[in-house]
Amino acid sequence: MSTIRRIINEVKEINSYIESESLDNHRFIELKNINDDIYKLEFVFLGPKESPYEELVSVIEISIPKEYPNKAPYMRVKTKMYHPNISQSDGTICLDVLKDNWRPIYTLRTILMSIISLLSDPNPDSPLNSDAATMYKNSLKNVKDRREYLKKIISYMDH
């Protein structure tokens, strides 16, 4: 299957998923092309339930290489977010399947679901934002630190 055909099929799959499922089930809002470029997409989603990001509407920019699916897409969060695995400077996402553990069997939908899951369950041992990772680790120890971590997350949502 050609790269373009696969991208078209995966975009159709995601859009069908958006239309057929409850927002509460998947948190996907919209997937669209940027400037009619099949290799450039923008994904809009709601943060995962029962997480500090639950009500945050976020945007991920997706750049798909011509070598896809043999090479992972590049994804970055455009929404300002305080998270251990998301770079504050450019929104780069630290997720193993976007780098060393990429396999052609992965689809855009499975990766997007993994990113949403990462928001609920950060990996502080592989941070792009070391301050957020430290705060997250401390937040697991006591209520006071948990409140401080949540305040920091909320302060970024207000910008």
Structure description:
With 159 residues, this protein is of the alpha+beta class. The protein has a single domain, classed as Ubiquitin Conjugating Enzyme (Roll), CATH 3.10.110. The model has no long low-confidence stretch (mean pLDDT 93). 38% of the residues lie in helices and 18% in strands. The chain is globular, with a radius of gyration of 16 Å. The chain has five helices and four strands; from the N terminus they run H-H-E-E-E-E-H-H-H.
Strand and helix layout:
Blueprint: H1 3-20, H2 23-26, E1 28-34, E2 37-46, E3 57-63, E4 74-77, H3 108-120, H4 130-139, H5 143-157
Antiparallel strand pairs: 1-2, 2-3, 3-4
Between the first and last Cα atoms, what is the distance in angstroms? 43 Å
Shape, please? Answer: globular
How many runs of DSSP E, i.e. beta strands? 4
The percent of residues in helical segments reads 25-40%
- State the CATH architecture: Roll
Low-confidence stretches: none
Specify the oligomeric state. single chain
